[in-house]
Predict the 3D structure of the following.
Amino acid sequence: MASNSDPWRPRQLHPSIEDAMPPATGKPTILPGVTPSWPGHEYGRTPIPAPAPSTPGLPGGVLRTRAELEALRDDAARQFHAGEPARVQLDEDEYEVRRPGTFAQGVWAVSACLLGELQSAPISGETHDYPYTVRQVGREEIHGVDRLEGNDWPDIDRDYALAVRDTVRWATSAWKNRPVPPAAA
């Protein structure tokens, strides 16, 4: 008798976004000379979300302060809006590497999620009560690793998944380098 935890059954991937949502009639275009205002700009201008003043504490396992997370969120958003590739400082190297804008968008999404400004998780889209538990924060890192290894989440951009993994690791450890360098650097 097979159960849901049968290790020999092939793993089912999530349905693609095309199967879950009807095709759009036409994607809005950005007018020439207009700078996108925030990640998700292709759906029209959206206001920059203000931090909720009543948000209690931080999620479990997060070792960084609220100020550090807010600074990271703002720096990632600046890099995303500038339209330039994200600057990334690798742990083992002394030089910077450039990543596509989706990396900066992933850093922004995780930091905003850890601050309680987003209602759903960056990769899985799961919603939980804030502040999140250590397990809920760690699951997003695992989802990023799953995407990077090709095990799951095939519709998620690889650089976005890398940003999710790196940002969660930075937020939950004291020895990791910041995923996006400060704006003054």
